Each structure stands twice: as structure tokens, then as C-alpha cells.
């Protein structure tokens, strides 16, 4: 990332955080679950590094030893990158049980046909109190839908994903409902 882009991210991240806090407060206060459908293809997809947008926020939770599942060429800082290889992939991590402080994943989960199995594997390697940070495409962007983007096998929903994580032993720390500037949302969960 160029120095100018890095500076822009550093300067805008606190404003985005403030906007996110206000948006979450409005959500809780009014019980809103509305978002505008968009068909725009996010510009960052043409140059990669989607996860960099959420790194500022994720650094609050992802500390210690961890893994970035589906990292591509831009792994989360300080995390061990896990890609789709025969020896290690989203369904089979080379890590001992309860050995990781966090598992970070950006725009990977929607590519997995057995995403529930992957989440159980990610849970297996987390220490009690470990953090799972998911950054996933928001359904407000039509381009993310599996009928349009065929390598997306399913569409994560802002309400359903946290509910699933709660059902497999996580407690919700924070999650977003509305799409962000990159037409994505995040879920932060802690293993109980």
C-alpha cells in the first residue's frame, strides 16, 4: 500500500469507527435491519487487499498468536497465513487444539461449501476466550450473490452468522449490520 493510501486509511479509520458506533447505536435503539441493495462492483476488487480496510478495527481484538484463513497475498499483520493447500486449508488447520489467540478471515467463508465444518475447525484451534474475526461480503451488494459471482457458494447474512456462532459456543462481542464502504460486514466473537 502506498504511503498516501496508508495515511488516508489512518486518517479516515477513526471517522469510520465513529460512524460505525453511531450506526450500531441506531440499530440497537430502533431495531433497524435495513440496508439499500446495490449492484455496484467494489473498486478494490480490481486491485485486491480488501482486508486492509478492516485491519484497523480488527487489531483491537486480534492480538497474540493467530491465523488468517484465506489470507491471499495480504495476511493480517502478525498472523500466519492459511491458504487452500492439500496439507492445510480452511477445513484442516495445522495447529494444536486451543493453541491460537485469534482466527481472522476476510472474504473467505462465502467460498466454502462446508462453511459450518470450517467454523468448527477454527473454533477447535482457539484458546478459551480466543477471538474469531470474520469480514464477509454484505448481501446488499448484488454482485456478491452466488447467482452472480459463481465462486461464492452461499451468502452470509448479518443476523444469521452471529446466531450460528452463538449456537456453536461463541459469545458475540460486536458485529455490523449495514454494509461498510467496501460493501462488507464484520462479526467479532469470543470462544466461551
Tags for this model:
single chain; 192 residues; alpha/beta; Rossmann fold; 6-stranded mixed beta sheet; 4 helices; globular
Layout of strands and helices, then pairs:
Layout: H1 3-30, H2 52-58, E1 66-69, E2 79-82, E3 100-106, H3 115-125, E4 126-137, H4 160-167, E5 170-175, E6 184-191
Parallel strand pairs: 1-2, 1-3, 3-4
Antiparallel strand pairs: 4-6, 5-6
N- to C-terminal distance = 36 Å
Helix content: 25-40%
Structure summary, number of beta strands: 6
CATH superfamily: Vaccinia Virus protein VP39
Tell me the strand percentage band.
15-25%
Write down the overall mean pLDDT.
84
Going by helix content, strand content and strand pairing, the class is alpha/beta
- If you consult CATH, what is the topology? Rossmann fold
State the helix count.
4
The largest sheet, given as strand count, sense and whether it forms a barrel, is: 6 strands, mixed
In CATH's first tier, which class applies?
Alpha Beta
- Quick one: overall form? globular
Uncertain runs with pLDDT below 50, 5 residues or more? 30-39
What can you see in these coordinates?
- By secondary structure, this protein is of the alpha/beta class.
- The chain has a single domain (3-191), classed as Vaccinia Virus protein VP39 (Rossmann fold, 3-Layer(aba) Sandwich).
- The protein has 4 helices and 6 strands, in the order ααβββαβαββ.
- It has helices at residues 3-30, 52-58, 115-125, 160-167; strands at 66-69, 79-82, 100-106, 126-137, 170-175, 184-191.
- A 6-stranded mixed β-sheet has the order 2-1-3-4-6-5.
- Helix 3 (115-125) links the parallel strand 3 (100-106) and strand 4 (126-137).
Amino acid at each position: 500500500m502506498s504511503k498516501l493510501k496508508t495515511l488516508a486509511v489512518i486518517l479516515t479509520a477513526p471517522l469510520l469507527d465513529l460512524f460505525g458506533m453511531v450506526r450500531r447505536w441506531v440499530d440497537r435503539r430502533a431495531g433497524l435491519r435495513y440496508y439499500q441493495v446495490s449492484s455496484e462492483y467494489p473498486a478494490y476488487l480490481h486491485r485486491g487487499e480488501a482486508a486492509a480496510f478492516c485491519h484497523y478495527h480488527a487489531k483491537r481484538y486480534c492480538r497474540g498468536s493467530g491465523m488468517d484463513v484465506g489470507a491471499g497475498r495480504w495476511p493480517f499483520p502478525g498472523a500466519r497465513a492459511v491458504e487452500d493447500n492439500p496439507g492445510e486449508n480452511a477445513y484442516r488447520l495445522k495447529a494444536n487444539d486451543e493453541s491460537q489467540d485469534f482466527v481472522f478471515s476476510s472474504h473467505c467463508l462465502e467460498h466454502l461449501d462446508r462453511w459450518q465444518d470450517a467454523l468448527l475447525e477454527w473454533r477447535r484451534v482457539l484458546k478459551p476466550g480466543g477471538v474469531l474475526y470474520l469480514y464477509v461480503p454484505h448481501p446488499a451488494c448484488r454482485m456478491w450473490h452466488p447467482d452472480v459471482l459463481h465462486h461464492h457458494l452461499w451468502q452470509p447474512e448479518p443476523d444469521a452468522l452471529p446466531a450460528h456462532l452463538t449456537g456453536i459456543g461463541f459469545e458475540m462481542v460486536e458485529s455490523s449490520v449495514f454494509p461498510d464502504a467496501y460493501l462488507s460486514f464484520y462479526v467479532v466473537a469470543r470462544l466461551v
